[in-house]
Amino acid sequence: MEKTIVLITGANTGVGFEAVKQFYADETPTPYHILLGGRSRDKVDQAVQRVKEELASGQARGEVEGVVIDITSDESIQELAGWVESRFGRVDVLMC
Fold first, then answer.
1. Are 24 and 35 in contact (CB under 8 A)?
2. For residue 73, how many other CB atoms are within 10 A of its CB?
3. Which pathway does UniProt place it in (predicted)?
4. Using an 8 Å Cβ cutoff, are 76 and 10 in contact?
5. C-alpha pair distances (Å), 27 with each of 4, 24, 61, 87, 88
6. In sequence order, which residues have a C-beta less than 8 Å from that of residue 18 and are 6 or more positions away?
7. How many Å apart are CA 4 and CA 44, to the nearest integer?
8. 52-59: long-range contacts at Cβ-Cβ below 8 A with a sequence spacing of 24 or more?
9. pLDDT per position in the chain (96 positions), as tens?
10. CB 72 within 8 A of CB 44
11. How many helices (H) and strands (E) in the chain?
């Protein structure tokens, strides 16, 4: 089954982090592949781990993956866009 690709920037804390958790646990027929974005690799990795710990595997239908992005940097945006294009071919939902 093809997953819906969701990219959420600034997602290692606050509203972005809560949005990741909602998509991760959502029970829609088509599961989500969530790209949890943030500027720091360490903070992104910690946030991914927190999502997985807070939502036991029985609650999760989606997948979450950390990506590094600085939305103030054109280079960072272009780099991630190229990676997403080559890996998934699209983004279905973008939250900044």
1. no
2. 12
3. Steroid biosynthesis; zymosterol biosynthesis; zymosterol from lanosterol: step 5/6
4. no
5. 12, 9, 7, 24, 22
6. none
7. 21
8. 54/21, 55/21, 55/24, 55/25, 59/25
9. 789 999 999 999 999 999 999 999 888 888 999 999 999 999 999 999 999 998 876 666 789 999 999 999 999 999 999 999 999 999 999 999
10. no
11. 3, 4
- Helices in the chain by DSSP H: which ranges? 14-25, 41-54, 74-87
Q: At 40, list the tokens.
A: 């720091």
Measured distance CA(27)–CA(66) in Å, rounded: 21
Residue with tokens 């500027």: 39
HSE, side-chain direction, 13 A CA sphere, residue 29? 0
Which residues, listed in sequence order, are joined to residue 67 by a DSSP beta bridge? 37
Whole-model pTM: value is: 0.93
Would residue 14 be called left, alpha or beta, if left means φ above 0 and alpha means ψ between -120 and 50 degrees?
A: left
Q: Does domain 4-95 have CATH number 3.40.50.720?
A: yes
In the chain, the amino acid numbered 6 is: V
CB 44, CB 67: distance < 8 Å = yes
